């Protein structure tokens, strides 16, 4: 499929990525959950690979721009689990046909949103960090949704710790997932070009994040992103 350059489509894509990027920079999650199902409805070329590239850059730019605390010791078992989950997901993608991939993406987006909305919590220990990392590796590589499993473990902690853990984990998870997609032939030069179309939305969203945070509470913004993601994911599954 050729990468589109239609002006109307570019504006739609930029608007979606802008809102998702502003949300992710403000609360630690949002770009992948919001953009992937919506952009798949616009044109499948944009997801998941190009959105993962955009999210990778955004995560580390946001860490530089907003206050965050990163505990490297806590992230070690999560990253081991992430690598294992990414490998498993890469194997799944290598054997699934393209006709089923969009529905699978939609189902995993809904699963990720459901996890984030569940309110479930667990102790922040090495075993649970490893399990959350594994789940995020599978969710992230198949549907581009790394954040919910790790965010569940950090909910209720100081915002700086949540942002630091989630943004770092999402950034590194995106890099691993892009590698896995490339190895199974689902991230090529046309996807890399499509990723460049997302840059304006990412940069504007990053700049808009403080404004958005001042206009709307983090809780309401999170509910908005998860609600839109769930509806969009269901449209992909049943559409």
Short description:
With 239 residues, this protein is mainly α.
Task: Describe the 3D structure.
It contains eleven helices and no strands. It is an all-alpha fold and 239 residues long. The longest helix is centred in the last third of the chain and has 25 residues. The two termini are 20 Å apart. The mean pLDDT is 84.
- Name the helicity range: over 70%
- Low-pLDDT parts are none
Number of helical segments?
A: 11
Largest sheet: none
H-E order: HHHHHHHHHHH
Shape label: globular
Report the average pLDDT across residues.
84
For the terminal residues, how far apart are their CA atoms?
Answer: 20 Å
Number of domains: 1
Name its key features.
80% helix, single chain, 11 helices
What layout of secondary structure does this protein have?
Blueprint: H1 7-27, H2 31-42, H3 49-65, H4 72-95, H5 98-118, H6 126-143, H7 147-154, H8 159-183, H9 189-196, H10 199-215, H11 218-238
């Amino acid at each position: 499929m050729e990468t589109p350059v239609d002006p109307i489509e570019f504006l739609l894509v930029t608007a979606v990525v802008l809102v998702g990027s502003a949300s992710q920079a403000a609360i630690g999650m949002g770009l992948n959950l919001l953009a992937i199902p919506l952009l798949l409805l616009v044109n499948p070329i944009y997801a998941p690979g190009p959105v993962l590239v955009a999210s990778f850059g955004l995560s580390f730019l946001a860490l530089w721009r907003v206050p965050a605390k990163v505990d490297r010791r806590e992230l070690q078992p999560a990253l081991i689990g992430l690598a294992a989950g990414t490998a498993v997901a890469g194997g799944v993608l290598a054997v699934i046909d393209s006709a089923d991939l969009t529905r699978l993406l939609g189902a995993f987006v809904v699963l990720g949103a459901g996890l984030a909305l569940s309110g479930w919590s667990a102790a922040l220990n090495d075993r649970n960090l490893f399990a959350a990392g594994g789940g995020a590796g599978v969710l992230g590589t198949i549907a581009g949704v790394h954040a919910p499993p790790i965010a569940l473990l950090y909910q209720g902690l100081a915002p700086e710790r949540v942002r630091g853990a989630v943004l770092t984990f999402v950034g590194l998870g995106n890099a691993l997932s892009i590698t896995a997609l490339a190895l199974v032939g689902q991230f090529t030069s046309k996807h890399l070009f499509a990723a460049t179309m997302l840059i304006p939305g990412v940069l504007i969203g990053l700049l808009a994040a403080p404004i958005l945070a001042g206009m709307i509470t983090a809780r309401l913004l999170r509910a908005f992103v998860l609600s839109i993601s769930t509806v969009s994911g269901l449209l992909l599954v049943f559409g």
